[in-house]
Amino acid sequence: MINRAWLLGLLLAVPLIGMGVAEAIQAQWKSRLHSALRNQWPQASEQEIAAVSIEQICSDPVPAIQEPCDAHANVSLMGMAALGAGVVGVAMLLLIRLSGMLGSNDRNLLVTLFKPGLYLTILVLIGLIAVHAAVVIAALYYIETSLIGRIHVRMIAAIGCGAIAGIYAMARGALSVVEKAQVFVVGAQLTRMEAPRLWKCIEDTARRLDALGPDNLVVGLDPNFFVTEATVTCLSGTLEGRTLYCSLPLCRILTREELISVIGHELGHFKGEDTKFSQRFYPIYRGTATSLAALQETGDGWLGRIAVLPALAVLSYFLECFSVAESRLGRLRELAADQAAASVTSPRSIASALVKLHAFTGWWKELQDAAINAVREGRVFANMSKTYAEAVALNAKSEIIHGVARTHLSHPTDSHPPLSERLESLRLKLEDVSTDALVVAPAEPAIAHVDEAEGREEEISAAYQVIVARHLGIDLLESDAEGCSD
User: Fold this and answer.
1) Do the Cβ atoms of 89 and 12 come closer than 8 Å?
2) What is the pLDDT of residues 381-411, one digit of tens each?
3) 270, CA 20 to 30 Å: which among 9, 252, 481, 484?
4) Model confidence, pTM
5) How far apart are CA 406 and CA 423, in angstroms?
6) Is residue 166 a contact partner of residue 308, using CB atoms and an 8 Å limit?
7) What is the DSSP string of 242-310?
8) How far apart are CA 13 and CA 7, in angstroms?
9) Residue 324 pLDDT class (50, 70, 90 cuts)
10) Phi-psi region of 272 (alpha: psi -120 to 50; beta: other; left: phi over 0)
């Protein structure tokens, strides 16, 4: 979390230095002027000398004093620029804070404010980077010429280069925020012809909810379900539009009713007012992080980073303010999606599905570690999805269920409230569905909705282990992976 006092101090440091330097230099020049007047007109009183100002002399300067008058004007401009930068910086922080507070109470307002607010913040920061750099350069120049009579050209050049790099990075970041976020999954796209039963289940659920259906369907090994407008990259290529991801390992432990309820939850995010939030907010939500990453690469050494440090802090603060707003509304969104899921099946079905996801997704990490060790030894799993389901069946015991009430589910773009809140919203308790949740080898598993499921699982398992092998620097041919057994 960004410390607001530190952020304010960081944003005001350069303006305060610029104003202080301007005041000090002008005070020094004023003192020199009055000393010269005393020497030239010793008969003049202190009041008469004090009444003479540089501004008066430079109001209509003669050629002999044009240069010092120009220097005085430049120092005054530096002070005014510093003051303006400070005022703009403080006003920007207040507007960001206000926008985040307003957005936390109104989902539509959050959607409306986020993207324009991000653009405006970046544009203001570009201006502030330029002004801060100009103030620092001018302050160094006049301090060195006034006090030590020499100029460190390299230091001033480093700050100037840092400012140029910062402006370039901010401009590049402004373009990047309009791009959709990207999600990478080890999975394959299934068309309507390849998976007619699963597509029918999805489309029937969408119609019952009066929700938007997906444009793409991807099945994979990750123990998760999600629908997103982000760009999804999978084994089949890059997919645009609305993509629904379904986990093959979880389909093995879920019943058909539980699968329908989970799909209903995901499609519930594209129902009614929540549609705008899912379409217009989340795809650009990660744009701020992209801008931050771009800024963090700028500058040559600490001198070059002086100009962009306030921008880094402000964009972090912007993201933090809107993250708080998103998390508050996110809880309501998830609970509403759970109600949508319950409406297409039953509260008990979505509740038992949620308990299974919370209780058993952690076993996938155990299998991943085992797969890594196997690849190092030159072995592979023929069907990781099936192996996962078998491992869950062996470990599906009541004590595992008891500890999941306070856990959260991971998601590629947003967060979920703890299981206890979700069950309470469904008016159920953990013990009400614990028996159902322990049924991880159902008579009618959800995997039956996926045509040629085992063959697809084996293909994706082979591809996954090839990717793991490449990451480890092991030459594992895809054909070798397919030919091995568990």
Assistant:
1) yes
2) 999 999 999 999 998 888 888 777 666 565 4
3) 252
4) 0.72
5) 11
6) yes
7) -EEEEEHHHHHHSBHHHHHHHHHHHHGGGSTTHHHIIIIIHHHHTHHHHHHHHHHT--SHHHHHTTTHH
8) 10
9) confident
10) left
Cα angle vertex 111, ends 106, 113, to 5°? 90
Please, what is the end-to-end C-alpha distance for the chain in angstroms?
46
Q: Output the pLDDT for position 405.
A: 61
| Helix or strand holding residue 445 (H, E) | none
Give which of 453, 450, 448, 459 is closest to 482, Cα–Cα.
459
Length of the chain: 486
Of 287, 284, 267, which is closest to residue 215 (Cα–Cα)?
267
Distance CA 31, CA 329 (A): 60
What are the tokens at 53?
């100002």
Q: Which residue has the higher pLDDT, 196 or 126?
A: 196
On the question of pLDDT at 54 being above 60, the answer is: yes
Q: How many CA atoms lie within 13 A of 480 on its CB side?
A: 11
Per-residue CA distances from 289 to 38, 114, 316, 352, 397 (Å)? 61, 14, 8, 36, 41
Question: How confident is the model at residue 181, as a pLDDT?
Answer: 64
Round the average pLDDT of the chain to a whole number and report it.
Answer: 83
Take residue 225 and report the two structure tokens written for it: 């379900």
DSSP string, 212-258: PPPSEEEEESSS--EEESSEEEETTEEE-S-EEEEEHHHHHHSBHHH
User: How far apart are alpha carbons 339 and 268 in whole angstroms?
Assistant: 9
C-beta separation of 78 from 139 below 8 A? yes
Measured CA to CA, the distance from residue 360 to residue 130 in angstroms comes to 53
**Can you read off the two tokens belonging to residue 168?**
């370039």
The Cβ of residue 183 has, within 10 Å, a number of other Cβ atoms equal to 18
Model confidence pLDDT, tens digit, residues 269-299: 888 666 666 666 766 666 566 666 665 665 4
Confidence of residue 300 (pLDDT cuts 50, 70, 90): very low
Burial class (CB in 10 A: 0-12, 13-18, 19+), 33: middle
Query: Mind listing the pLDDT tens digit for each residue in 400-440?
Result: 887 776 665 654 445 568 888 899 999 999 999 999 999 99
Least Cα distance to 361 among 462, 254, 442, 266 occurs for 254
DSSP string, 132-151: HHHHHHHHHHHHIIIIIS--
Q: What is the pLDDT of residue 290?
A: 62
Q: Residue 346 is encoded by which pair of tokens?
A: 């039953």
Q: 479 pLDDT band (50/70/90 cuts)?
A: very low
Report the C-alpha gap between 466 and 479 in whole angstroms: 10
Contacts of 402 (CB under 8 A, 6+ apart): 430, 434
